[in-house]
Design a protein that fits this description.
The protein has 269 residues and is α/β, with parallel strands linked by helices. The protein contains 13 helices and 7 strands. A 7-stranded mixed β-sheet has the order 3-4-2-5-1-6-7, sandwiched between helices. Strand 6, helix 8 and strand 7 form a beta-alpha-beta unit. The chain binds adenosine-5'-triphosphate (ATP) and magnesium ion.
Length: 269
């Protein structure tokens, strides 16, 4: 059954969408079937994968409203094993429309339940808010991946996110875990980055991903070409770092025996 990972942080511009697109593309490039669901009315993950705006197209909005099935909403992408459920800015209304619906926090979870078998990973790109759209993503998810920038105020707002996760565990989704905290747009050479990294390590312990994402212009350029970095510039530091992050996450969820050949090789080297 597919592992559902919500990429969330209510802080804006921390690299959620860049992480969602490039992580999903890297999973797919590692030959695991992957679905990216754009849960943000800004629709940046949708345009970042090259889909033009189309208000008529079936989107995450229709999934949330129970007006379409995932099979009807899924779009193929340039990468063979990557599919996308697109968003549209009309989804902004969903926050209000959902308020009076039945099981309003479970709409996305219910919608995705029929397609979980088909994908090894389902990645949800969340909006920069702790609204009903993000809540739906966190209730649908097995785990949350939190992109953060290594800046002075990095931990500000994190306690609010942690409280929200606690509340969701208590009320809607007791199994929700933290997949990891990933540092984005990192410039490791600065003292500030080193200090913030040390502080985050103390706070999150092993939940802080070993892989960090450097500031890399290719990652910023790729969406305007409608492609993930690993197609736009596969040798860029940005593309490579997301491939490493995907491998790190896949390794956490592989059965133990799958790691055996690598250990064998190490012994003979
Ligand atoms: N590692 C990186 N190197 C350089 N630029 C980056 C990197 N990661 C993200 N960016 C750029 O930073 C901006 C914000 O990134 P992104 O859109 O991924 O953040 P977000 O958290 O999804 O934003 P929002 O909260 O608005 O949804 C974008 O212009 C993106 O191209
Ligand atoms: Mg975004």
């Amino acid at each position: 059954m597919g592992r559902i990972i919500a990429v969330a942080n209510q802080k804006g511009g921390v690299g959620k969408t860049t992480t969602a697109i490039n992580l999903a593309a890297s999973f797919a490039a590692a030959e695991v079937n992957t679905l990216l669901v754009d849960c943000d009315p800004q629709s940046n993950a949708t345009s970042g994968l090259g889909l033009v705006r189309d208000p008529e197209r079936i989107s995450t909005y229709h999934l949330l409203m129970g007006a379409a099935s995932p099979e009807q909403a899924v779009q193929p992408t340039e990468i063979e094993q990557l599919w996308l459920v697109p968003a549209h800015k009309n989804m902004i209304g969903a926050n209000i429309e959902l308020v009076d619906t039945e099981r309003r926090e479970f709409r996305l979870r219910d919608a995705l339940s029929s397609c979980r078998e088909r994908y090894q990973f389902i990645v949800l790109d969340c909006p920069p808010a702790l609204d009903l759209l993000t809540l739906n993503a966190l209730v649908a998810a097995d785990a949350v991946l939190i992109p953060m920038q290594a800046e002075y105020f990095a931990l500000e707002g994190i306690s609010e996110l942690m409280d929200t996760l606690e509340r969701i565990r208590g009320s809607f989704n007791p199994e929700l875990t933290i997949e990891g905290v990933v540092l984005t747009m990192l410039d490791e050479r600065t003292n500030l980055a080193q200090q913030v990294m040390a502080e985050l390590k103390r706070f999150f312990g092993e939940k802080l991903c070993e892989t960090t994402i450097p500031r890399n212009i290719r990652l910023a350029e790729a969406p305007s070409h409608g492609r993930p970095a690993l197609l736009y510039d596969p040798r860029s530091k940005g593309a490579e770092s997301y491939i490493r992050l995907a491998k790190e996450i896949i390794a956490h969820h592989l059965p133990v025996e799958a790691a055996a050949p690598v250990q064998e090789m190490d012994k003979t080297a």
